[in-house]
Amino acid sequence: MAFRILASIILLSTSLSASAYYIWGTGEDSCSEYIGAIAEYRHRGNPSDHRAHVNWIKGFITGINWAKDSDVAKDLDEEAVANWVDRYCRDNLSSTVAEAASELVTASILISLAVTALVAISIEATVPSRISIGQSTRKPTGVTCS
Asked: What is the maximal distance between C-alpha atoms in the chain?
């Protein structure tokens, strides 16, 4: 069972990042533009571009949740999402905000699956594969045999 779960994680990780889709809005912006918007926000206190990027990412995640009837990234708050994308974009300046959001969703799903796999492996390791039930030689009272 654990092997099947781990195989599913590997297959899912390769299939999610290979998707192609049309990008609209600030998701088209490069990660370097995203980082620039963060610098503008921190330097001048103007959150408009940065807020637009974060809202686009939240909409992207919401769209995936709607399309897949799922709850991707449900345990993340807005700050955690922004921090994750910030780190991704600093390491991948030529990527787009959409690619960063896609990687966040993939990472969130993989973490969720990995936790599920670890729980399954833990349960599998603690539950005996065969339980022996001893036979009683004592007859139950009040029961007649014919």
From this structure: 92
